[in-house]
Amino acid sequence: MTPRLSSERRHGLFVSVDGPGGAGKTTIVRHLAQMLVADGEHVHVTAEPSTSGIGQLASDLTPTVTGHALACLYAADRYHHVETEIKPHLKSGQIVISDRYLASGLVVQRFDGVDPVFLWQLNEEVERPDLTVILEADPHVIAERLLERGPHNRFQLAPDSSHAEVSYYRDATNALADAGFEVLRVDCSSRPPEQSAAAIRDRLTVLLAPSEVCA
Ligand SMILES: Nc1ncnc2c1ncn2[C@@H]1O[C@H](COP(=O)(O)OP(=O)(O)OP(=O)(O)O)[C@@H](O)[C@H]1O
Ligand SMILES: Cc1cn([C@H]2C[C@H](O)[C@@H](COP(=O)(O)O)O2)c(=O)[nH]c1=O
C-alpha cells in the first residue's frame, strides 16, 4: 500500500517539473496530480507561462520577441507567479505542481543565444522548489514524439532542437544541483508516463516522512 502523504501540513510542498519538449511534462504532471489526489492530498496544478497578464504577454510575444527581452518577460512572469499563485496555495497547505518553472527559464532562451550566466542571475531570487524534477530523455526518442505530436513553439522547429535542448537541460540540472537544489532526474524515454509519475510521488513521500514522524 502506498504510504499517505501528510494531509495536516500547515505549509505545502512545491514541486516543479521541467524537461525538453516531448519528454512528457504535461502528461506526467497530470498523472502525478491524479495519484496524489487519490492518496487524499490537496493538489494545485499550475504552469508557466502562468495565466496572469504577464504570462499571457510572454506567451503572445514568444513568436516575435527574442533573446534577453523574452528572458526578462518569462522571469517577470515567474516572480509574479510565485507571489500571486504559488505562495498562497502553499500557505494553505497544498502540494503545488508547476509544469515548467526555473529550469525552463535557464534553458529555453538559450535557443536565442542568451548567456546561461545571465539567465541564472535573472532568476536567482525566485522561490526554491522543495523538489525540482527534471525529465531526461534520449533526444532521438523525444524528437520522434515531437514529430508525431507536432511542435508547440518556435524553439521546437529546428531539426536538431531535441539534441540541443537535452544538452542545455544537462547544464541547467548540474547548475541547480551545485546550488543545492533538491533535484530528481527521471528518465522518460523507456517507460510509460504513469511510472515516471510514480517515481516522483515516491520521492515526495520520502521528503514528507520526517514531518509525519514529528506530527
Ligand atoms: N513516457 C511516454 N511514452 C510515450 N509517449 C509519451 C510519454 N510521455 C509523453 N508521451 C507523448 O509524447 C507527447 C508529448 O508529451 P507532452 O505534451 O506531455 O510533453 P511536454 O514535455 O509537456 O511537451 P512540450 O514541452 O512540447 O509542451 C504526447 O503526445 C504524449 O502523449
Ligand atoms: C517557462 C518558459 C516558457 N517558455 C515558452 C516555451 C513555450 O513557447 C511555452 C511553453 O509552452 P509548452 O506547451 O509548455 O511547451 O513557453 C520560454 O520560452 N521560457 C520560459 O522560461
TrEMBL record:
GO terms for cellular component: cytoplasm. Keywords: ATP-binding, Kinase, Nucleotide biosynthesis, Nucleotide-binding, Transferase. It catalyses: dTMP + ATP = dTDP + ADP. Belongs to the thymidylate kinase family. It holds the Pfam family Thymidylate_kin. The gene is tmk. One of its GO terms (biological process) is dTTP biosynthetic process. It comes from Amycolatopsis balhimycina DSM 5908. The keyword Transferase applies. SUPFAM superfamilies: P-loop containing nucleoside triphosphate hydrolases. Residues 17-167 form the Thymidylate kinase-like domain. Its EC number is 2.7.4.9. This is Thymidylate kinase. InterPro entries: P-loop_NTPase, Thymidylate_kin-like_dom, Thymidylate_kinase. CDD domains: TMPK (cd01672). GO terms for molecular function: ATP binding; dTMP kinase activity. Phosphorylation of dTMP to form dTDP in both de novo and salvage pathways of dTTP synthesis.
